[in-house]
Amino acid sequence: MNRTLAIIKPDGVSAGLIGEVIKRIEQEGLRIVAMRMTKLDRRQAEGFYYVHRSKPFFNSLIDYMISGGVVLMVLQGHDAIDRWRKLMGATDPKKAEAGTIRAEMGTSIERNVVHGSDSPDSAVYEINYFFKGTDFIE
Ligand code: CMP
């Protein structure tokens, strides 16, 4: 049993894909144990993507992540990190496996609809970045 952070990014929210993404999460049998819709400010987005601060795409990524609403979710289940990564597909929609969210709905390596934690350590950091204990339904 573990937890992972999922984000529906501004391109997914503005394209009306919230329901489609949540449907796939629930059909996979992952439980949403905390959820919030919000708009990130620059400081929040920079802190969240701190590990990417020296990458050439960092400034563009931050501008994109604060350009509209996002849905933040904590998913729980056996192997939640890997199962959510499988549903998302590879970072670059062009390389993502057919049938995945990013392959079907992503428009570029940046505008790839969803985010997921990539390891147990990053899941702990990312979940605690946005949620506190009383936010969880279980
Ligand atoms: P995500 O899984 O949220 O992790 C970092 C994000 O940076 C990634 O999804 C993309 O939105 C973006 N990203 C990663 N690599 C690139 C790249 N080479 N060019 C532009 N954006 C990228």
Task: Describe this protein's structure.
The protein has 7 helices and 4 strands, in the order βααβααβααβα. By secondary structure, the protein is an alpha+beta fold. The protein has a single domain, classed as Alpha-Beta Plaits. It has a 4-stranded antiparallel β-sheet. The structure holds adenosine-3',5'-cyclic-monophosphate. Residues 52, 57, 61, 91, 109-110, 112, 115 line the site of adenosine-3',5'-cyclic-monophosphate (CMP).
Give the structure's gist in a few sentences.
By secondary structure, this protein is an alpha+beta fold.
Considering the chains and any ligands shown, give keywords for the structure.
138 residues, alpha+beta, Alpha-Beta Plaits, four-stranded antiparallel beta sheet, 40% helix, binds adenosine-3',5'-cyclic-monophosphate
Q: Please, what is the CATH homologous superfamily?
A: Nucleoside diphosphate kinase-like domain
Q: What percent strand?
A: 15-25%
Total beta strands = 4
Classify the fold: give the CATH topology: Alpha-Beta Plaits
Question: How many whole angstroms does the radius of gyration measure?
Answer: 14 Å
Mind summarizing the main beta sheet? Answer: 4 strands, antiparallel
Shape: globular
Taken together, the total number of domains comes to 1
Number of helices: 7
Low-confidence stretches: none
Mean pLDDT: 97
Listed once per kind, the bound small molecules are:
adenosine-3',5'-cyclic-monophosphate
Record the strand order, biggest sheet: 2-3-1-4
Helix content: 25-40%
Give the structural class: alpha+beta
Order of helices and strands: EHHEHHEHHEH
